[in-house]
């Protein structure tokens, strides 16, 4: 299942989950979501991780064949789990948590029927909560993703060629990201958000509202995936915002930079500086104990003082957040939004993305990934933040 | 919401759904899944499609702003739906279908609480069933995807450069697919299967079992996404199987071809011919009225007669199907598997993929997408099926 080297990390994660289980007086959590399987075992497999409040961690595996380990138990179907538990002397849970926010309704009914005597409640908040505070090993992977991400972004201007459409430019950047080690997919919590690698939006395409809960929109190339680049020619006077995912390690970094062609109007240049100032100010205030909503409010206030509210986080459609937790998935906690109850803690990781959409010009702003440290934050996506000319 | 031109198509799909609703004596179905939103409206949006057995089709939209249409009703949250229905004179349903196989447990509870007086049952089989029989317009899009897919595959040998790793080759083919119009993502029904664009597997990497329910495996580049290419050098004596998704239109085609470097052992060459023969034989038998499981059994029998059972559909781990329905998603009905109850009908679309994994050589075989016609099948992915040398 995992190498001996990885065992202490698994033990650490197990003990974090167990502590939470004991606090909620639950006996165990049964995990099926890919992000949570990866978290608890270090790999994706088809099956279930079972963590009990006081025992071992077990992996009930359907596929692939050939996984090794004392705690690996092969099953054909989830209904095999209780008898395998009895065979291995694992007590059946009386209070069991299931992932009610990712299991489908029918999957959840099927799993709960397997444990007819257990009281079942929602385990999604618990496991997502545990994942919010990253381990030193996870922070190492996020720093590594950030470094590769920044190396890739450094090469963006060299990748542009005159006469490219936004989609053509995006395709070359997708390739660049993959050559730097990006795994391509990034994981999104919830089923309604879809995207390919990330988004590149130029000119007025930035002002096309999308159905997804991403900070920025774009028409996309198809009504089947209406987000991001739309096949339009990149022309002088436009900004090009690149917000491509950095899943280089199974852990994500998030990063946005802005490029330009020709002369950019003063309003957009000014808005970009305001965004940089917001980013710097928020990053300067962020530290353990600070409320995420206060950071959001501060950003909104600064945009307002600059007279740029109507463009902040979108124009025709505005996003209701300026930052989001990040890790195995792109949308973890903390959420930097007006009604967020999250308080920053050491070892949280979040992306901060103050952006403006300027009609007829494009999007400006910046996004970086930050680790919350004991006294402040550490930026993991280091690369120039000024608008870089593609000319 | 959609153009006037698209209205007859929406009407046709609506009437297909309504007919099924009346057959199951349901009053309405409320749709939230992206694939089904796309099917019912022609675009992805954040919100819900409501189809009643005898009335209009309505779109309850959260995002994006600005969608137009008589039947577009903006809501802030799903709880707004009943009052909006009353406002628009839409009777509340007594028997309502919800997507129990794609809504999460908590989403399903939330939606059913909105209709406290309705009897709720599972609408997923109904809508997937309707989607199984494609409309002429959908068939047109699938043919278009198949044509672009084949054009892209035609260029695969020219894209290879000596000394490439499997991942490097895959990255260039991903770019090639995107330049031919691929949207990148492809939709998979169910939450457990993840992949980036498709898979390229060379040599013994073909024999590494994956956790996913795809026909072929591969170690992948990360335990976070253990499928497909693994970063190994492509060396003489290896086959390279390319199975990259063809989502060029919102509708998928599926296609696999095999390439080789240097001399390939007789066993593999022979197995490839057997695969081609299976493909041809099955395609020759497939027509309306034929049971999908009979086609599966025939394929298994032919592999056995050739003495190649141990390599068929995998070696260390074998897939339990030889084909799958395809459309908006990669895994629709019919399923060509031993326990399938599907009977082929005109306007079904399926991918047929007899493959063998030969240890120390790689995977061989073929995959094409077929439309079931009145008397047989029509192949939409036309491109040479012999093993093509990369030398």
Automatic annotation (TrEMBL), chains A, B:
Gene3D superfamilies: Creatinase/methionine aminopeptidase superfamily, Creatinase/prolidase N-terminal domain. This is Xaa-Pro peptidase family protein. It comes from the Bacteria. The lineage of its organism: Bacteria, Pseudomonadati, Bacteroidota, Bacteroidia, Bacteroidales. Residues 141-373 form the Peptidase M24 domain. Residues 13-131 form the Creatinase N-terminal domain. SUPFAM superfamilies: Creatinase/aminopeptidase (SSF55920), Creatinase/prolidase N-terminal domain (SSF53092). InterPro entries: Creatin/AminoP/Spt16_N, Creatinase/aminopeptidase-like, Creatinase_N, Pept_M24, Peptidase_M24B. It comes from Coprobacter tertius. Coiled coil: none annotated. Pfam families: Creatinase_N (PF01321), Peptidase_M24 (PF00557).
């Amino acid at each position: 299942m995992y190498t001996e080297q990885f065992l202490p990390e698994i033990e650490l994660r197990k003990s974090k989950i167990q502590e939470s289980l004991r606090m909620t007086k639950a006996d165990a959590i049964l995990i099926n979501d890919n992000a949570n399987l990866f978290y608890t075992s270090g790999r994706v497999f088809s099956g279930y991780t079972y963590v009990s409040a006081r025992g071992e961690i077990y992996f009930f595996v359907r596929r692939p064949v050939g996984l090794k380990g004392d705690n690996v138990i092969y099953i054909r179907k989830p209904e095999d789990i209780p008898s395998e538990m009895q065979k291995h002397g694992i007590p059946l849970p009386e209070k069991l948590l299931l992932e009610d926010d990712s299991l489908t309704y029918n999957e959840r009914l099927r799993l709960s029927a397997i444990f007819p005597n257990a009281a079942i409640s929602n385990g999604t908040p618990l496991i997502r909560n545990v994942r919010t505070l990253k381990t030193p090993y996870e922070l190492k992977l996020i720093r590594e993703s950030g470094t590769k991400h920044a190396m890739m972004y450094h090469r963006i201007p060299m990748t542009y060629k005159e006469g490219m459409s936004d989609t053509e430019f995006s395709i070359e950047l997708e390739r660049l990201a993959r050559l730097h080690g990006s795994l391509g997919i990034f994981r999104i919590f919830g089923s309604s958000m879809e995207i390919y690698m990330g988004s590149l939006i130029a000119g007025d395409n930035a002002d096309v509202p999308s159905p997804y809960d991403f900070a920025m929109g774009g028409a996309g190339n198809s009504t089947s995936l209406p987000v991001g680049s739309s096949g339009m020619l990149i022309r002088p006077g436009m900004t090009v915002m690149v917000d491509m995912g950095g899943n280089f390690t199974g852990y994500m970094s998030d990063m946005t930079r802005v490029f330009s062609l020709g002369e950019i109007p003063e309003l957009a240049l000014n808005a970009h500086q305001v965004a940089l100032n917001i980013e710097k100010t928020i990053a300067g205030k962020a530290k353990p104990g600070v409320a995420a909503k206060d950071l959001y409010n501060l950003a909104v206030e600064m945009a307002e003082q600059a007279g740029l509210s109507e463009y902040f986080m979108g124009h025709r459609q505005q996003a209701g957040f300026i930052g989001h937790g990040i890790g195995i998935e792109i949308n973890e906690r903390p959420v930097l939004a007006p009604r967020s109850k999250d308080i920053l803690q050491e070892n949280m990781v979040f992306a901060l993305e103050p952006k403006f959409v300027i009609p007829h010009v494009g999007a400006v702003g910046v996004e970086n990934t930050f680790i919350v440290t004991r006294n402040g934050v550490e930026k993991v996506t280091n690369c120039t933040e000024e608008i870089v000319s593609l000319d």
